[in-house]
Design brief:
Blueprint (H helix, E strand, L loop, with lengths): L6 H5 L2 H19 L7 H10 L18 E2 L7 E2 L11 E4 L6 H9 L9 E3 L5 E3 L6 E2 L5 H6 E6 L11 H18 L8 E3 L17 H17 L1
Parallel strand pairs: 1-5, 3-7, 3-8, 4-7
Antiparallel strand pairs: 2-6, 4-5
Helix pairs in contact: 2-3, 6-7
Bound molecules: zinc ion.
């Protein structure tokens, strides 16, 4: 999990912040049509007309087939339009240091300012909490948050038995799908632990996480995806 970075976004009203971005971009369009003043609604309509700025979102939609959707608090991520605004070139592996339910509760609590895109349970069940379009606050490093997809794993860094076969298999399929989506190689340069994020004091996923096994599984999952 990450610390409470990017406090600025949380302190400001989301609608106002988004209007600021809309106004900035729609300003050019307004000048082009010769209109001096536009009402707020008109600004936002122009914004939606601009191509490629933001994809339509469907409530409850997930980026990984079979994932269950549980929304994180909007204070725990920043809306974005990845990979158009921020290229995605990392998967960051985390361990929750607690149970699944308590981790989900933290991600739904606006006071924590942390959330990952996904959490994988001991039984291999995958839950998505933040769309990959958006910047989740999981890495404790702004640029790594912007460039990565974060996957939490239920369990404890110091407890090797946390990491079950079902968890490895499901998470590896998820990582394979993410790497395929953004054209990333499945390797230890692109699939990293939270411990490897610059400046972090977090140690997850820790010494019991079997990287050779995980990357091997993810590579095989990627290859079988390509054969389909
Ligand atoms: Zn972490």
């Amino acid at each position: 999990m990450g610390a409470g970075e990017e406090r600025v976004g949380a302190m400001r009203d989301d609608a106002d912040r988004r209007l600021g971005r809309r106004a900035l971009l729609a300003g050019g369009a307004a000048a082009a049509v010769g209109t001096a003043v536009l009402a707020r609604q008109e600004l936002s309509r122009l914004w939606w007309r601009l191509p490629g700025v933001e994809r339509p979102r469907v409530a409850g939609a997930v980026d990984f087939r079979g994932a269950r959707w549980v929304a994180a608090s909007a204070a725990n991520y920043r809306r974005a339009d990845r990979p158009d605004d921020y290229p995605v070139d990392r998967v960051v592996i985390h361990v929750t240091q607690g149970g699944y339910a308590s981790a989900v509760k933290v991600f739904q609590d606006p006071s924590h300012e942390v959330a990952a895109h996904y959490i994988v349970r001991r039984d291999g069940r995958v839950t998505q909490l933040v769309r990959e379009l958006d910047v989740a606050y999981h890495a404790g490093n702004r640029s790594y948050n912007e460039r990565s997809v974060g996957i939490e794993h239920e369990g404890f860094v110091e407890d090797a038995s946390s990491f079950t076969d079902a968890m490895y298999a499901a998470s590896a399929r998820l990582t394979a799908a993410i790497c395929a989506r953004y054209g990333m190689p499945v390797d230890r340069e692109h699939v990293i632990g939270h411990v490897e994020v610059p400046g972090t004091d977090h140690t997850d996923p820790g010494p019991h996480w079997d990287w050779d096994r995980y990357v091997g599984l993810a590579r095989r999952a990627r290859e079988s995806r390509e054969k389909i």
